[in-house]
């Protein structure tokens, strides 16, 4: 084993390390760090030793080849305050069992049944708009994807509650930054205003989740959806008992959040990028007109909407909803000429790697043509990883791709979005990559 030598990296304060600089603008901090120090960067976040890896080979090793050497990082450990022991946060055999249980909800045959819900809800959103109206498209997309995930995975109509739920989720996202601060485990025990707001937002979300569970247990009908699978599941390896309401709640909360938050963000950034690049938008409309001929998209259309998929792929390259992935090293781990000590935080960032000029010439340019087959195949596998990789790869990836393509096709067939002049656009990297000031756009009839 190589002797313990720390990689180069930015020097931080004596107390707090680089935490304040990182928290102020994590995206530019990591980009500047890798430009100056290379593909392995060391810095401290408070008392935590942190290592940022920015090469596809290193990323593949952490997520796939040596995944057993790591566990989820501090951000998702702290996310248990909201998500409990759901798929996103749980570890080991419990996580593997829960994933096996949820997997059938995302099989191809089941996914086909979701198409009508996706296009129907998108058409319903479209029908509420009128030419020239100004909207916060980020809120519109949150409302839409929340209604879709509620109906498809839990057969629950939450559209009427979407604004309230969305507000609670926004509060949770804003306050999650506090949970990542050093010593936040102690801060959250104090009667501070932001702690009270976090608890109130969590209670609002729990109220909806537990109501859905209670209604479904009362009727005891298997509707063939994910919630039915969770409620009927039995722990055959132990006492054969059913999942408790708390266990079901954790899985529902996780998929409720992950199943709509990430897609809504991807949609929002896509509309923004199309607004800024009318030549790409025109080519997208050309494909939609040729393939759909004025009708709603179906599942058979999804593989035919190749440029639409390229637009979404490129949008998630520039603005990946999950902008960073954190892992804690369970033992000393060797990377190149360095050793990452056990208990260190390892950071990977789709946002940074996917804007690396080595893999993407003129990396900040929005160019869906990068995703022609020959160009895509010439790049290293983990130069693009918006859904992670390995055994913890996002279980809903197929769901998200299908939903994203169908929503773009349904809405762009009728509308153009134009950014409101002087609206400030800035990504806000918390759990996901939301637009910091929303996304105010004018909707124009196509």
SSE layout:
Blueprint: H1 19-24, H2 26-37, E1 40-45, E2 48-53, H3 56-65, E3 70-72, H4 74-78, H5 80-83, H6 92-102, H7 108-112, H8 115-128, E4 134-136, H9 137-154, H10 162-179, H11 184-187, H12 193-219, H13 226-232, H14 245-276, H15 278-292, H16 306-318, E5 325-329, E6 333-335, E7 338-340, E8 345-348, H17 350-353, H18 373-377, H19 397-412, E9 415-419, E10 427-429, E11 433-435, E12 440-445
Parallel strand pairs: 2-8
Antiparallel strand pairs: 1-2, 3-5, 4-12, 5-8, 6-7, 9-12, 10-11
Helix pairs in contact: 8-9, 8-19, 9-14, 10-12, 12-14, 14-16, 14-19, 15-16
Question: What does this protein look like?
Answer:
The protein is α+β, with helices and mostly antiparallel strands and 446 residues long. The protein has a single domain, classed as Cytochrome P450 (Cytochrome p450, Orthogonal Bundle). Helices cover 51% and strands 11% of the residues. The chain contains 19 helices and twelve strands. A five-stranded mixed β-sheet has the order 1-2-8-5-3. Strands 4-12-9 form a three-stranded antiparallel β-sheet. The model has no long low-confidence stretch (mean pLDDT 89).
């Amino acid at each position: 084993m190589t002797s313990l030598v720390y990689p180069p990296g930015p020097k931080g304060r004596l107390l707090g390390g680089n935490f304040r600089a990182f928290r102020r603008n994590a995206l530019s901090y990591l980009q500047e760090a890798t430009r100056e120090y290379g593909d392995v960067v060391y810095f401290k976040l408070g008392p935590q030793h942190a290592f940022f890896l920015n090469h596809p080979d290193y990323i593949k090793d952490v997520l796939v080849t040596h995944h057993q050497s790591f566990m989820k990082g501090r951000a998702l450990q702290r996310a248990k305050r909201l998500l409990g022991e759901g798929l996103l946060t749980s570890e080991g055999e419990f996580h593997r069992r829960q994933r096996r249980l949820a997997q059938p909800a995302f099989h191809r045959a089941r996914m086909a049944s979701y198409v009508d819900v996706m296009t129907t809800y998108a058409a319903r959103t479209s029908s509420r708009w009128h030419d020239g109206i100004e909207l916060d498209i980020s809120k519109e997309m949150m409302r839409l994807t929340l209604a879709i995930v509620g109906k498809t995975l839990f057969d629950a109509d939450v559209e009427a509650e979407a604004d309230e739920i969305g507000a609670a989720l926004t509060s949770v996202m804003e306050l999650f930054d506090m949970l990542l601060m050093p010593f936040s485990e102690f801060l959250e025990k104090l009667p501070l205003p932001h702690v009270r707001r976090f608890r109130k937002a969590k209670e609002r979300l729990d109220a909806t989740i537990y109501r859905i569970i209670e209604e479904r247990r009362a009727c005891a009908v298997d509707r063939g959806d994910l919630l039915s699978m969770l409620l009927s599941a039995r722990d055959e390896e132990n006492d054969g008992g059913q999942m408790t309401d708390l266990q079901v709640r954790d899985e529902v909360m996780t998929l409720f959040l992950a199943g709509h938050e990430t897609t809504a963000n991807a949609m929002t950034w896509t509309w923004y990028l199309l607004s800024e690049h009318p030549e790409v938008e025109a080519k997208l409309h050309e494909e939609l007109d040729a393939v759909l001929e004025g009708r709603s998209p179906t599942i058979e259309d999804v593989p035919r909407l190749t440029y639409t998929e390229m637009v979404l792929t490129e949008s998630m390259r520039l603005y990946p909803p999950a902008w960073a992935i954190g892992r804690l090293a369970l033992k000393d781990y060797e990377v190149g000429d360095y050793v990452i000590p056990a208990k260190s935080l390892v950071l990977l960032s789709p946002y940074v790697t996917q804007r690396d000029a080595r893999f993407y010439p003129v990396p900040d340019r929005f160019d869906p043509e990068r995703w022609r087959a020959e160009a895509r195949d010439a790049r290293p596998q983990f130069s693009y990883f918006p859904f992670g990789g390995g055994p913890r790869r996002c279980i809903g990836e197929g769901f998200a791709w299908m939903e994203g393509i169908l929503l773009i096709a349904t809405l762009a067939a009728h509308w153009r979005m134009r950014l409101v002049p002087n609206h400030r656009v800035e990504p806000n990297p918390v759990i996901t990559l939301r637009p910091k000031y929303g996304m105010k756009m004018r909707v124009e009839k196509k």
